[in-house]
Amino acid sequence: MKKLKILSIFLFLGQLSVPVLGQERLPVIDMHMHIGAPLDLPAGGPAPCLPQPCVRQGHASANSADNLKRTLEVMDRYNIVKGFLSDLDLSELREWAKAAPDQFIISPFILDPSKAASPDDLRKELETKRIAGIGEIGSQLIGIAPNDPRLEPYFALAEEFDVPVLIHTEGIGPPLPSFRSAAGSPLLLEEVMVRHPKLRIFVENSGFPYLDEMIAMMYQYPQLYGDVSTMTWIIPRSAFYDYLQRLIKAGLGKKLMFGSDQMLWPEMISKGIEAIEEADFLTSEQKRDILYNNAVRFLELEKKK
Length: 305
Ligand SMILES: [Zn+2]
Known about the structure:
Elements: H1 2-20, E1 28-34, H2 64-77, E2 80-87, H3 90-99, E3 104-108, H4 119-127, E4 134-137, H5 152-161, E5 165-167, H6 190-195, E6 201-203, H7 211-220, E7 224-228, H8 237-249, E8 256-258, H9 267-277, H10 284-298, H11 301-304
Parallel strand pairs: 1-2, 2-3, 4-5, 5-6, 6-7, 7-8
The protein binds zinc ion (ZN).
């Protein structure tokens, strides 16, 4: 009788508390976070969306401190226990890491290799463990493809130090004058994978919309993971679900990791998580894999305990 009573209280609490209280939620890892956006946008402005015309949502944070505060609030609400955080400015990254010790994996954003922190500088940062990843390598935003020799030293460094690499290799990106969709085919990663077989690398938006290319690469190079990040909120939900479902049907459910790519819009973290949770073609195990388990494996968090 007593047991039954306890059980019914538990069920009652369970039903009520999961959506209401952040601490009751199962842990989530956000593999794609930033401090800012790659475009100059006014404070309070909505987030981008595709394809245009489309309805933009959200309110951009006013500055880094505001964005940090808002981002931490959402992380707390959704029980996000780790975030892979990248930015061009290493001192800003340190500020965020200081504000939430152990919560962020900090990693330099690489845009233009000729202006980015040099591989020698990054070697020192890696040796002292002040950074724990490479990228997002976002050089596609200025038309530089993943197989460009200028990126080679960064891949070599990441492989040597066995740290994760995030790369923007897909068909979509911000409307910058030098952005090239053609420089984002996942097939252009092949030389990198062959040259660096131990590289732990993951591709933004799992290469959207280059599905066949991405499946080929993920089958051939099992160390390659993909994230489901901006696509959870920037493109129509139907397009995201279609892409995700086809990756799942291809058997790649253990290689996909949630990321919000929140940039200046922390509310997109909630939209992203909800997009996964509301996908009725995913089993609860597949949802947990995407939101947490796959990232634990990819980041080797169990090993590091
Ligand atoms: Zn990004």
